[in-house]
Amino acid sequence: MSRSEQEQANLKHVLDMFEQVLNPMDSSAADRFISPDYIQHSQLTRPGRTAFKTFLDKIKADTPEAVHDVKRAFVDGDHVIVHYQVRRWPDDLGWAVVDIFRLEDGMVVEHWDVLQVAVEGGPNPTSPF
Q1: pTM for this one?
Q2: Which among 18, 26, 28, 84 is placed 20 to 30 Å from 49, CA to CA?
Q3: CA distance 9 to 26
Q4: Could you tell me which CATH number the domain at 5-117 has?
Q5: Bridge partners of residue 69, in order along the sequence
Q6: 119 half-sphere exposure, CB direction, 13 A CA radius
Q7: Tell me: the pLDDT tens digits for 36-86?
């Protein structure tokens, strides 16, 4: 089954957000990707684009070498799911993360996440981390 043009656009939007906002931790670029009324379900920060930008600035100050290593991404209608590893510094195992984004009118309007501490060898012998 092929993806619709809208699904392709949603997937591209989120992956571009990882490339232009999350990996460089560039809060000034967030306005191009995230709605002002952004609904945040994560316990790590408060709702709203401004709160997200403040959170991103703090993370950049605390861990300027952090990377978001995307492993896979999926799209289903207006939802995009991204599985990735966050590493705060070069030798850090970091976290395995799954983000779920909902888009509306070409912007991220809602976000959920699930985080798991990455351990040496992974939780099982086939782990990609």
Answers
A1: 0.89
A2: 84
A3: 22
A4: 3.10.450.50
A5: 85
A6: 6
A7: 999 999 888 888 999 999 999 999 999 999 999 999 999 999 999 999 999
